[in-house]
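Work through what follows:
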Amino acid sequence: MSKIYKVEIITRKEKFQELKDELTRIGVEGMTVYDVQGCGVQKGIVTYYRGVKTEIQLIPKIKIDIVVSEVPYEKVLETAERVLKTGTVGDGKVFVSELTEVLRIRTGERGADAIRN
């Protein structure tokens, strides 16, 4: 039985399309995408609106959830790093978790079969 992994990527919104294209190229077939807000090392940003200084504590980002079994999660990590790395604060983070079970509700398929198209 194949191991199944969930890869969560949090990064800049403007990098999404390039990342999506590259993930598709390596064989990732599906993903769930969320608009999120957060802070880390950046601690927020300062902007000016009509000349008034405004501090934004939570920075808009995008979160991409991917579940893989046939595509090695290491390949997803390498692709994410290659596409997203600018070398500046705010490039993002990637989290990998092993999943114990997956169920495709429509068919009743479980495990790796549930995530294959």
User: Anything to note?
Assistant: The chain is about 20% helix and 35% strand. Residues 38 and 92 are 11 Å apart (CA to CA). The beta strands are 4-11, 32-38, 45-49, 52-56, 59-68, 93-99.
